[in-house]
From TrEMBL:
<feature type="domain" description="BTB">
    <location>
        <begin position="113"/>
        <end position="179"/>
    </location>
</feature>
<dbReference type="Pfam" id="PF12796">
    <property type="entry name" value="Ank_2"/>
</dbReference>
<dbReference type="GO" id="GO:0005737">
    <property type="term" value="C:cytoplasm"/>
</dbReference>
<dbReference type="InterPro" id="IPR002110">
    <property type="entry name" value="Ankyrin_rpt"/>
</dbReference>
<keyword id="KW-0040">ANK repeat</keyword>
<dbReference type="GO" id="GO:0000151">
    <property type="term" value="C:ubiquitin ligase complex"/>
</dbReference>
<dbReference type="InterPro" id="IPR044515">
    <property type="entry name" value="ABTB1"/>
</dbReference>
<dbReference type="InterPro" id="IPR000210">
    <property type="entry name" value="BTB/POZ_dom"/>
</dbReference>
<protein>
    <recommendedName>
        <fullName>BTB domain-containing protein</fullName>
    </recommendedName>
</protein>
<dbReference type="Pfam" id="PF00651">
    <property type="entry name" value="BTB"/>
</dbReference>
<keyword id="KW-0677">Repeat</keyword>
<feature type="repeat" description="ANK">
    <location>
        <begin position="33"/>
        <end position="65"/>
    </location>
</feature>
<feature type="domain" description="BTB">
    <location>
        <begin position="270"/>
        <end position="340"/>
    </location>
</feature>
Length: 472
């Protein structure tokens, strides 16, 4: 992670591109000084790098803490103009990890709504009992008592705009609100018994006031909440929903009779079931169908599905229950809880169920498992499933251990195969795998001993190509 901050300070666009596109480094990470890569690029006046970061999801919204800080620190007028002209492209609209987008989608998933709120001005919000209950003790209590059998709830005392932004926090753990409306959000947080929201707003206000105090004439008019703690709490809540429905044999959390604080929700909130090797996994359409186009199609176009108490049952025959457990944990919490025993089957399931984020998690997991014995198998797997981070890790490992891997038959086949893919190949055309290995050998070389080691490895590469009758 430190490398992206160094790259942004130095203006090394090539390095930053490599980290973002190959290593899949998150653009909106923060260092110990609460600064982002975009802030350093602005501060150092690297116009091309600022443009690249904005185009790829670096967060810089007007009147927010991050936006005003970048604008204030911009070294040149060109950088300042880039920031002012930039469209509102946030991390949530372009980041590689799609969990934030998924959370926004379930908020808008009216097809799976089971309760409607009608507020001032005839504003309508079609929501989901399971999510409201697991996120707010007040909602949980009301939905199991006064609101239990009511399909609609009317309340003309709450501002529609405030409630709309409040729901974004409930569903996504993020909220953006005007500073002059903070009192309304505090009241709603208290009424719904969500002390974590009040604490997050307090923290954001303190940060804004501290920034204003250090920068004369700057005013932060918009308060934004988007913290790792808030996201973690959201994932824990959604994990609790999942835990209610999966077989105890595959649960990673203690049951309610062992851990009394584990909340329990009515079984009526489940509206679908996955039958895997005789085990029933009860779950929620709003999660499973919104996140996986495969399950959505399977549920809506399977005319022969079983029904149990009006709950559709989808029979899964391709994977074991342990694999389905990982898939569901990913769908609900974005954490698949992978292990060596199941990761390859989970990768195959992620590809089948159209879960690109889960594929990347499998790739990241396997990136830490590369050895001399399995590097070529993982390299081929990376290409088969389009996992650039894993492929990059494999070529990096080969570069480090080229003297050992040079005789590997699968490695030699990969070199020959890449060479053959170049149409109308000339004698000195590049070979993809060789180019990647050479990049890793030469990048970051600084000392005389490192130069000597790199030259020896490049000589080995030349020997390999010569032995295969190739030049590149």
């Amino acid at each position: 992670m430190d490398n992206i901050f160094v790259g942004c300070r130095k203006g090394d666009l090539g390095r930053v591109k490599y980290l973002v596109e190959q290593k899949e480094v998150e653009l909106n990470v923060r260092d110990n000084w609460d600064s982002t890569p975009l802030y350093y690029a602005c501060l150092c006046g690297h116009t091309d790098l600022v443009k690249y970061l904005l185009e790829n999801g670096a967060k810089c919204e007007a009147n927010t803490f991050d936006g005003e800080r970048c604008l204030y620190g911009a070294l040149t007028s060109e950088v300042r103009k880039l920031l002012l002209d930039a469209k509102v492209i946030t991390a949530q609209t372009k980041r590689r990890d799609d969990y934030d987008i998924f959370c926004e989608k379930i908020l808008k998933a009216e097809d799976y709504s089971d309760i409607t709120f009608l507020l001032e001005g005839n504003s309508t919000f079609k929501l989901h009992r399971c999510i409201l209950s697991v996120r707010s003790d007040n909602f949980k209590s009301l939905l199991q008592s006064r609101w239990k059998d009511r399909p609609e709830i009317r309340n003309h005392m709450i501002e529609s705009k405030v409630f709309e932004e409040f729901l974004k926090y409930v569903y996504t753990s993020r909220i953006v609100c005007q500073r002059d409306r903070l009192d309304s959000f505090y009241r709603l947080a208290d009424q719904c018994q969500m002390p974590q929201l009040r604490a997050e707003l307090d923290s954001a206000v303190v940060k804004a006031e501290s920034f204003e105090g250090s920068k004369k004439g700057v005013r932060v008019s918009t308060i934004s909440v988007e913290s790792e703690k808030a996201l973690w709490e959201l994932q824990q809540a959604y994990g609790q929903l999942l835990e209610q429905g999966i077989p105890p044999e595959f649960s990673s959390w203690p049951p309610a009779n062992v851990l009394p604080l584990m909340p329990t929700l009515p079984s009526s909130y489940f509206d679908m079931c996955l039958l895997v090797d005789g085990y029933r996994f009860y779950c929620h359409k709003v999660f499973v169908c919104v996140r996986s186009g495969y399950f959505n199609a399977m549920l809506h176009f399977n005319q022969n599905q079983l029904l149990e108490d009006n709950i559709p049952i989808l029979k899964i025959v391709d994977f074991e229950p342990e694999v389905m457990t990982c898939v569901l944990y990913y769908i609900y919490t974005n954490n698949a809880q992978l292990s060596d025993d199941v990761v390859l089957d989970v990768l195959r399931s992620a590809d089948m169920y159209l879960l690109s984020g889960l594929k990347r998690q499998c790739g990241a997991f396997l990136s830490n498992k590369v050895t001399v014995d399995n590097v070529m198998m993982l390299f081929q797997l990376a290409r088969m499933y389009d996992l650039p981070r894993l492929e990059n890790r494999c070529t990096e490992f080969i570069a480090t251990n080229i003297d050992t891997i040079r005789e590997n038959e699968e490695f030699q086949k990969a070199v020959v195969s890449d060479a053959a893919e170049v149409k109308g190949r000339q004698d000195t055309d590049s070979i993809q795998i060789i180019d990647d290995i050479r990049y890793h050998i030469t990048s970051g070389v600084q000392t005389f001993s490192e130069v000597a080691d790199a030259n020896e490895k490049l000589r080995i590469i030349d020997d390999i190509l010569e032995s295969l009758g190739l030049e590149a």
